[in-house]
Amino acid sequence: MRVAFESVWYPDYEERALKRGTFYIDGGAIKFTCDGPFDLVFRDTLVTPGFFNSHSHIAMTLFRGIGDDVVLEEWLQEHIWPLESRLDEEYVYWSSLLGSAEMLLSGTTSFVDMYFWEKATLEATQKTGIRPIFTPGIIERPGWESVLDRIEHLMGEGALVGIGPHALYTVSLKIMPEIVAYARDKNLFIHMHLMETEAERAFIHNNLGVDYLKKLDDIGFFEQPVILAHGVHLSDSDMAFLGSKNSVVAHCPQSNLKLSSGFFRWGDAKAHGLSVGIGTDGAASNNNLNFLEELRTAVLLARGISQKPDVISPLEALESATAVPARILGLPLGEIKENYWADLIVWNTTDISMVPYDEPVNLLSHVIYSAGTEAISDVFVEGRWVVHKGQVVGINRVEVVERVNELRRKIRKGD
Ligand SMILES: [Zn+2]
Fold first, then answer.
1. Going along 263-338, which residue ranges are E strands?
2. What is the CATH number of the domain that holds 55?
């Protein structure tokens, strides 16, 4: 599919500016020169890179609204883990369809997921067109090595894959060296929850000491790119240490706030040179996968905590939501640059939430502080037209809603 974006506004992260210009989609990639004819032409609107959801559990849409009013430990042990033990491919397939529709409608084009039954999620995402990046989760128990077979299967399917030691309270340093060696051998990035709650901080400090990051470094943990989810209870010295490594924190503010875990200090992370991406976490703790809402919460929280209105600019926020995690993983996406994968959001600048704007054009401010998902008109993933006029192209929405409701009743009954 060939698409022209004529005289549109788009962010240029190198020039640190919203530019006006013309570019194209050709063969799934972004090009700045291209001969017609074109299948589609967009003019005089705002186009941004698609959002990169740095931390999710997509199929947890099935558990939306369960165990709303308890802390993380009780929520996992009493509510979520018992239900997850009943999951199978069918549950995960339909919940992944629901989750990918929800992500796409808020402009998400890639997501880094840690869950189970990845084959079913892969099948669902092939229907909707969103790009999954799988990191099958490892919890230390007999037979954990079977996760490595799932990783190899996904690699064989051509999917993007990393490895997901779940957290330092579920994976000890007994098996971590083996996981790290495997990651190095297969050239996989590492995705792990870290410092999500105060209880986790106490556990890590009691068991591994305050220099736990140095211990991870000693076994080669940071030789591969690393995504660390949450980082709520990182100390300043932890941030400085991580800032010197090829790592990024997946900041999931709504999940942290809802689970009453605390909040990640984005402004301090920036001061320490630590890269930050944005994640929704799962819909069971968030309780939605609306990326735009997540991004706005993250920026407002950073302003409130730091008491500095300029702590994160709209361009910096957008860069964290798109390019920053992709750069850490070495993927050519998240920026409007020659030959980058054409993951793009076309915004409706006449939507009420985007109006008015004038010179100088402040549309990035509207994206960060004002826009609703109804301002997202069209979405492309690697040149595939996946959202068209606010509708997900690849699914029958009514069927997905009915099936997920049925499956929710079934898993609760324990059949
Ligand atoms: Zn998580």
1. 275-278
2. 3.20.20.140
Domain that holds residue 232: 51-329
Residue type, 270: K
- What pLDDT, on a 0 to 100 scale, did the predictor assign at position 73? 86
pLDDT (0 to 100) of residue 415: 54
Q: Has residue 404 been placed in a domain?
A: no
Centre of ligand 1 from the C-alpha of residue 108, in Å = 17
Mean pLDDT in residue range 357-361? 85
Overall average pLDDT of the 276-283 stretch = 96
- How much distance in Å is there from the Cα of 78 to the middle of ligand 1? 17
- Give me ligand 1 centre to Cα 232, in Å: 12
With a cut of 80, say whether residue 80 has pLDDT above it.
yes
Residue 126 has pLDDT above 90, yes or no: yes
Q: What is the whole-number distance in angstroms between the Cα of residue 226 and the centre of ligand 1?
A: 15
Distance CA 351, CA 90 (A): 37
Helix-then-strand count for the chain, H and E: 16, 19
Look at residue 413 in the predicted model and tell me its pLDDT.
Answer: 87
Distance in Å, CA 349 to ligand 1 centroid: 34
Rg from Cα positions in the chain: 21
Residue 182, φ and ψ in degrees, nearest 5: -65, -45
Structure tokens at 390: 């606010």
Cα of 199 vs centre of ligand 1, distance in Å, is: 16
Strands 190-194 and 226-230: parallel
The pLDDT tens digits of the residues spanning 42-62 come to 999 999 999 999 999 999 999
Is 194 in the same domain as 129?
A: yes
Residue 168 CA, ligand 1 centroid: distance in Å: 13
